[in-house]
Amino acid sequence: MIPRLLAVLLLVVTARAEEKRIAVFVGLCDNATQGIVKVGAKIGDGNKPDDNLYWGCSDGLKSYFKASRRWKLEKRETATGDERILERLTFRHVSAKAVLVAEAWRGSNLKECYVASEKAMLSGENQLVAFIGHNVLMDTAIEPPAEKAAGKTDAIVLCCISGRYFRERLEQVGVRPLLLTTQLMYPGSFILHDALEPWLAGKDHKALRTAAGAAYARNQKIKTAAATRVFAERAP
To answer: I want to staple 216 with a disulfide (CB 3.0 to 4.6 A). Which of 36, 84, 131, 227 is the partner?
Structure first.
C-alpha cells in the first residue's frame, strides 16, 4: 500500500513540475489617480472591478477569459487578504498543462501592482508574468530591482509604449521581455489571450507578435499590418 501511495504522490509532483504557471497583474483603470485619457466614470472606477475597463468589461481579463473556450475558471477569490487586491481568479487551460492566476489591483495602487509583478518575475515560480494597465512609469519613477531573476521567466507588458519604458529594466535583471508595445494602445485582454496560445506551443517571439497583432486588428477594426506594428519587433 505504501509503495503504491508513494508512486501516486510522485506522479502528482511530476505533473505539477511540468505545469506552466502564468501570473497576471491587472492594474484597474482609474480616472482619479492615473495619468490617463479619462474614460466613462463607471469603467474608470479603480475600486470596482466588476465594471472596470481592464477587468469586468467585455475585453477585460475576467470577462474575456471566462468566455474563452481555451481556459476554464477554477477558483474565484474576493477575500484576498490584501485590501489592494480586489479579486483573484485561477484559470486552467483546457488542453495544455498550464494554470493562470490573475489579480485585479485597486487602481490607486498601480505602483504596488507593478512592483508585485516584477517580484513575481524574479521569484522563479512562474514561467510567464504579465502586467496589464496604464504605464505606471509615465507617472512615477520606480527603482529597478536590485536582485536578479531566480529562474527563466518570460514577461508580457501590455500598456502604452512599454518597450521604451520596460525592456531595459527587465533585461538587466534576467527577465525575457517577450511581448512589448511601441505606441499608445488599448491593453485589452484579448491580446494576452491570443498570444498565450503560441507561447504554450513553444513558438517564438515572432509568433506571439503575429498573434497579438491579429487580435488587435480584429478588435480595433484596423489593418493587420498596422495592428502588428503596435507590438515591438525586436526579438528578446
So the answer is: 227
Residues paired with residue 76 on neighbouring β-strands, in sequence order: 89
Query: Within the chain, what is the greatest distance between any pair of CA atoms?
Result: 64
Task: Give the list of residues 6+ apart from residue 95 with CB closer than 8 angstroms, or none.
Answer: 70
* Beta pairing, strands 71-77 & 128-132: unpaired
**The C-alpha cell of 197 is what?**
496560445
How far apart are alpha carbons 121 and 21 in whole angstroms?
11
Asked if 188 contacts 227 with a C-beta cutoff of 8 angstroms, the reply is no
Query: What is the model's pTM?
Result: 0.92
Q: What is the pLDDT of residues 193-221, one digit of tens each?
A: 999 999 999 999 999 999 999 999 999 99
Predicted pLDDT at 101: 98
Which amino acid, 20?
K
Q: Residue holding cell 527603482?
A: 143
Q: What percent of the chain has pLDDT over 90?
A: 91
What pLDDT sits at residue 17? Answer: 55
From the CB of residue 99, how many other CB atoms can be counted at a distance below 10 Å? 19
230, 185 contact by CB (below 8 A): yes
The C-alpha cell at 130 is 504579465
Interatomic CA distance for residues 10 and 210, integer angstroms: 39
* Residue 135 pLDDT > 50: yes
**CA–CA separation, 22 vs 50, rounded Å?**
22
CA 234/CA 205 separation, integer angstroms: 9
Torsion of CA 200, 201, 206, 209, to 10 degrees: -40
